[in-house]
Recover the amino acids of this structure.
C-alpha cells in the first residue's frame, strides 16, 4: 500500500433510484470534501438517469467502477484495492439491495465504513413509505444521516422526521429544498401544545411520544391526557408503571411497547394490560431505566377506558 495510513474510510450513500445520490456525491466532490485524499475510488452500484461527468471525476482524482450485485464480493473489492490503492472509497449503493450485504462482506485491509447516509426524494416519500416500508426502514436503522431533498414547505415534513426517528432515534435529519438549500421546519402537531391539558387523540399517540423525547423543554411541566395500556413489572418501584402503546415501526412482526415511566400513588388499583386514560404532568428526571434524564409522568388521574379502535400505533 503506497500510503502510510491503514484506515480507508468508506462513505456509504444509499437511497432509492432517483433519490439524488449521484447529484449529492457530485456536489460533495466538487465542494472539495475529499480533496485531501490522493486516490479516491467511487463504486457505483446503481446507474440512474443522472450520470457522472467523466471530466469532473478526472479533475478531482476520482476513479469510478460500476458493480452489479453478484460482483459485490470480497474478491472483487480486493481486486479494486490493488488496482487503485484508494485513500478513501465512496459507494453509491443500490437502494434495493439489502444494507446487510455491504456490512457483511469481508473488505480489504483497512477498509471500514466511516459514514452512512441515506437520501430520500421528499416528493416520492409518502408513496414509497406506504408500499416499501420494510425496505426503506432497513436503509435508515443504522445510518448517521438522512437527507430529504426536493422538499416543499407544504409537505408534512414533521411526519417524515418522526417516521425516521422512530426507527433510528440518534440519526441526524436534514431537509433540503428544490434548490438544495437547507430548510428549518416547524413541528406540525395535531394537538394544542399550549392548552391547559394537552389532549392526545388515540391516533396521535406516536406523534406525542416522539415529540416529547425530542423536544423536552417544550413539554416540561405540561399536563397531558392520553389513552394507554398499563404495564406493571416486578422490577419497577412500588409507585411505578408505564402507560403506553404497541408501535409498529415497519411491519407486523416488528412491534414494541413504548411509553414513559410514571408515578402513581394508587398503583395497586391498576391491572396489567388494562386500558386507561391517564392525566399526568410531564417532568424530566434521571431514571435508571433510561440511564439518563428523560420524560417522567406524575399521574394525577387514571380512568378505566375502552381499547382504541386500532390498538397499534404507526410511525
Amino acid at each position: 500500500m503506497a500510503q502510510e495510513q491503514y484506515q480507508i474510510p468508506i462513505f456509504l450513500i444509499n437511497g432509492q433510484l432517483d433519490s439524488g445520490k449521484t447529484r449529492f456525491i457530485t456536489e460533495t466532490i466538487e465542494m472539495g470534501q475529499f480533496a485531501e485524499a490522493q486516490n479516491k475510488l467511487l463504486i457505483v452500484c446503481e446507474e440512474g438517469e443522472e450520470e457522472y461527468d467523466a471530466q469532473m471525476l478526472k479533475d478531482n482524482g476520482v476513479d469510478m467502477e460500476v458493480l452489479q450485485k453478484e460482483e459485490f464480493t470480497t474478491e472483487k473489492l480486493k481486486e479494486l484495492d490493488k488496482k487503485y490503492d484508494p485513500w478513501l472509497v465512496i459507494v453509491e449503493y443500490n437502494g434495493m439491495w439489502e444494507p446487510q450485504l455491504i456490512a457483511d462482506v469481508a473488505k480489504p485491509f483497512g477498509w471500514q465504513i466511516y459514514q452512512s447516509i441515506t437520501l430520500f426524494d421528499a416528493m416520492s416519500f409518502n408513496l414509497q413509505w406506504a408500499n416499501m416500508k420494510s425496505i426503506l426502514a432497513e436503509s435508515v436503522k443504522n445510518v448517521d444521516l438522512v437527507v430529504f431533498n426536493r422538499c416543499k414547505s407544504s409537505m408534512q415534513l414533521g411526519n417524515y422526521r418522526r417516521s425516521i426517528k422512530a426507527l433510528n432515534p440518534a440519526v441526524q435529519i436534514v431537509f433540503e429544498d428544490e434548490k438544495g438549500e437547507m430548510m428549518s421546519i416547524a413541528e406540525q402537531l395535531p394537538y394544542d401544545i399550549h392548552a391547559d391539558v394537552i389532549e392526545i387523540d388515540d391516533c396521535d399517540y406516536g406523534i406525542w411520544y416522539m415529540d416529547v423525547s425530542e423536544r423536552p423543554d417544550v413539554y416540561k411541566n405540561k399536563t397531558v391526557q392520553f389513552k394507554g395500556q398499563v404495564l406493571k413489572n416486578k422490577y419497577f418501584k412500588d409507585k411505578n408503571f408505564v402507560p403506553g402503546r404497541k408501535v409498529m415501526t415497519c411491519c407486523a412482526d416488528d412491534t414494541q411497547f413504548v411509553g414513559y415511566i410514571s408515578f402513581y400513588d394508587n398503583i395497586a388499583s391498576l391491572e396489567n394490560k388494562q386500558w386507561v386514560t391517564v392525566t399526568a404532568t410531564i417532568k424530566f428526571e434521571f431514571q435508571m431505566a433510561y440511564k439518563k434524564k428523560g420524560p417522567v409522568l406524575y399521574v394525577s388521574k387514571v380512568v378505566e377506558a375502552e381499547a382504541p379502535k386500532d390498538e397499534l400505533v404507526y410511525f
About this structure: The mean pLDDT is 91. The first strand starts at residue 8 and ends at 15. The CA atoms of residues 74 and 106 lie 5 Å apart.
